[in-house]
Specification:
4 strands; alpha+beta; 3 helices
Length: 88
Amino acid sequence: YVREVVRHINNWRKEAGFNVEERVEIEYEASSELAAAISEHREYIAQETLAHTLREVTTEGHGFHAHVSFSGETLVVSLRHAAPLGRL
C-alpha cells in the first residue's frame, strides 16, 4: 500500500504543477486498512513526497484534489504549497 500511496501522490504533485523540490502539505482521507498503513509509515511517505505535513482529515481540504482506488482501498488527497519556514 505504501509504495502505491507514494507513487500516486508524486504523480499528483506533477499533475498539480509543483516543482520537484517544493515542499507540500498533504491532507488525506483513506479507508481503514490504508489509513493504518499510512499512519505506520508516515515518516517514509512524508520523506518520499516532500510533505511538510501529512494529516488525516474527514473533510475535503484546500488545494489540488485527487482520489484513487486500488486493492480494494480508497485514498482521497488534497495537496497545497507548504508555508515557507518561519511563516507557519
